[in-house]
Structure formats: structure tokens, C-alpha cells
């Protein structure tokens, strides 16, 4: 009984990994992490720098 359950569980796990669901989920997660880093860098380094220069302030600490 136990070995039969182990075999079926192993077969189900292999079939699940073969479908590619885990791979697609991992790729989507990494894409989200990279997109978050790009947006944060854009906001902090480019947009806030332009606003600080336009207002004549050196940074957010002076506000």
C-alpha cells in the first residue's frame, strides 16, 4: 500500500512539473521582482531628482 501510494505521488509530481506550471510561476515571480526594482529606481533616482532640481532643493531631507 505504501509503495503504491509513493509511486502514484511521484508520478503525479512528475506530471505536474512537466506541465510547466512551476516554471511559469517562477518566471512570473522573477519578472515581478525585476519590474519592482526598475520602477523603484525610476521613481527614486530619476523622477525625484528632477523634482528636487526643479524646486531647488538638494533632497527630500530639506522639505
Automatic annotation (TrEMBL):
The chain crosses the membrane at residues 21-43. Keywords: Membrane, Transmembrane, Transmembrane helix. SUPFAM superfamilies: Gated mechanosensitive channel. This is Large conductance mechanosensitive channel protein. It comes from Mycoplasmopsis edwardii. The lineage of its organism: Bacteria, Bacillati, Mycoplasmatota, Mycoplasmoidales, Metamycoplasmataceae. The gene is mscL_2.
Amino acid at each position: 500500500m505504501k509503495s503504491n501510494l509513493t509511486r502514484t505521488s511521484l508520478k503525479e509530481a512528475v506530471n505536474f512539473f512537466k506541465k510547466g506550471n512551476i516554471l511559469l510561476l517562477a518566471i512570473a515571480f522573477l519578472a515581478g521582482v525585476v519590474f519592482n526594482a526598475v520602477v523603484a529606481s525610476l521613481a527614486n533616482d530619476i523622477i525625484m531628482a528632477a523634482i528636487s532640481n526643479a524646486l531647488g532643493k538638494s533632497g527630500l531631507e530639506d522639505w
